[in-house]
Write a structure and sequence with these properties.
Blueprint (H helix, E strand, L loop, with lengths): L5 H7 L2 H4 L2 H11 L3 H10 L6 E3 L7 E7 L5 E2 L28 E3 L2 E7 L2 H16 L16 E7 H5 L9 E9 L9 E7 L3 H13 L5 H11 L5 E10 L2 H14 L13 H10 L14 H11 L12 H4 L1 H9 L7 H10 L5 H8 L4 H8 L9
Parallel strand pairs: 2-5, 6-9
Antiparallel strand pairs: 1-4, 2-3, 5-6, 7-8, 7-9
Length: 382
Amino acid sequence: MVKINAEWWEHLTPKPVHRKLKEVERLLNEWSRTPYGGHWLGSAITERGVIRVKPGQPIPVVQLIALGDRPMYIAPQMKARIGHRTIGPDHFGSGRPLAENELAIEPSIQVDVVTDPAHLAAAKVTAERIMSGQSLDPSPYIPGLQTPSLLFSAPARMLLAPKNWVKKSFVLYQHIFGNGASYPVDGYFYVGVTTRSWQKRWSEHKRQIETGSPQLFHRKFREEMEAGRITYVHHKVIGITDDLEVLYNTEEYLVRAHWHDERRLNMIPGGNSGLKYLREHGLLTPRVVPTPDERDVLLERWLRDNPRRGPPAPWVSEKWKDDEWAVAQICGRDGRLSVEQVRSIRRLADEHSAEVIAERIGALNKEQVQRVIDGETYTRVN
């Protein structure tokens, strides 16, 4: 039986989705009784569970759609294609590596709420064309649209079998927006972290958008909205943790992995590399350690004070391309593993548990060791 944790549902989902909890549970219970649904559920409640997907196979996302006041329904699953935007693990308990073009995707739940009258009318026309076998309108625009559809998604495990306490957790999130074929995950995007709820951070982003913030994320959202090119805004929760080191490491990894994507709207590196960047370029004094939520404020202040200069060149510089320099930044801080410790973990992983390795090499804890084994941290260390 599928049971969503009510506390995490209210903490993670937008307010318009709160009241839909029972309806979502009912639909998930029905869907999980199908062959694929049962496979999805088994992986969703398993720690570090993923489903391997090749092009043409279903993406393990349960997409629930609410059109106005109509009953919700589960949409047909989208199929994976070459170039699908995702970053997942490449080390698995089975020891079997991914095949060419194969992806490892964590099962997730996505809710799409459509309330705008123009959008509802367009959805009705689309449904009628599909039912009658007609071709779809290729236009990505919806005339008269005022309110984009509201999407929310999160790994299913966070809602079905959470491990963390709501009040002691940090959130890694992604805001995605666009129209047409970019729906629901291929639009412009911004990766961020917060020590609060992502909804509070999003409300601050909205105020910055509305008050003319020069940050790339805010400026691009404003431009696209004014041009009528935003039909959806997708708030994607990527991870939850009570470990600030994990939060920063993962943000740094995601931003770096997407740095050459033209849709990426982050202006500076993520995680601790972002803090180092701010200090090196005079945006942050050496002794100040800002919270994750304060970094954008510092960057916006600098951009407003230097409107013609733009931000200094970030870590796509030659220094960051140098593995030796990058490893020195990654391993050079208190509480971080040394290069030799990382290499020892990989050498010992085939014969010893994370707990034994942690004790042997003097790591902070077994979780720090396990993240190295799983390929989540210290990936630049060879």
